[in-house]
Specification:
Helices cover 41% and strands 15% of the residues. The protein has 313 residues and is α+β, with helices and mostly antiparallel strands. The strands form three sheets. The protein has a five-stranded mixed sheet with strand order 6-5-4-7-8, with helices on both faces. The protein has a three-stranded antiparallel sheet with strand order 1-2-3, with no helix packed on it. A two-stranded antiparallel sheet has the order 9-10. The C terminus is likely disordered. Bound molecules: zinc ion (ZN). The site of zinc ion has 8 residues, from loops.
Length: 313
Amino acid sequence: MNLIETTRQFATDDQCLDYLEAARWPNGVCCVHCGVLNVSTITRKAGKKNKRARIYQCLEKECGKQFSATSGTIFNDTHLPLTKWFMAIAMICEAKKGMSAKQLERHLGVNYRTAWHLCHRIREAMQDGGDFLTGVVEADETYLTPKKPRKGKPYVKKEKRDIVLGMIERGGRLRLIPIADAKREIIEPVLEAHISPDATLQTDGHATYGIITEHKWVGKHRVIDHNRSYAWGDVHTNTIENAFSQLKRGIYGTFHKVSIKHLGRYCNEFSYRFNRREQQLQMFDSTLKNLTRGEALPYRKLVSKSTIDERQQ
Ligand SMILES: [Zn+2]
């Protein structure tokens, strides 16, 4: 699904509503308040007073409420037209390196604050749940703050750098988890939460992993010593390294700086997109479904404290 198709398919509010209804009610429109299928359609002129042109009336005696395809979803309380929401979702799904609020502001012709809030709410919907990673799983950590200070920026001590722990199935799914420190006490529970005890763990020679696998993944831990070589047959951590470099290109190239408060959401977005790289259409669908299900992320919550950096993006 490319942007031209998206523009064509979701050019009007009506088209977006059709899509939303089909996604939300695959078995026919049912009342969002009581769940009955016994509803009637009301068509009216959309305007200042009536936001949606198409609403439904529940015919159940006890209920009798009105609703639309956006009722109870994030799309209901927004002043932004559905067409712009859909366009934004398509663009963010499409952007391999991520999409900054600045870019979205330009493309959609909305103000910066709206674009920024939109980005974060869509990102919030890009979440992978899921079971254990299995097979051969590469794990490694990476420091996101560049070692060399950037122009006009002070040097950042190693302890203060943002760290992300990455785990990836060979030929499969990716997880990126921000961690506070590359210590065993912090890494171990994350590995345990995401990697099957039956998996083969592949890491570099970092001592932490050696200590962890003294009692976990015993006999199923393969180590590549980077002081000697970067690959020994299929003993390597190149898959996770590639994912890291893609993440960094996105963070440095598109977002310039990500405040630690939002790092988790950025990581989710990257792994979500990475895990659906072959399925653009499903990605759009599942993001949209998550948005209709999820809670709205209020602007207030996003800007609470320490997001001054972020808002410069
Ligand atoms: Zn009802």
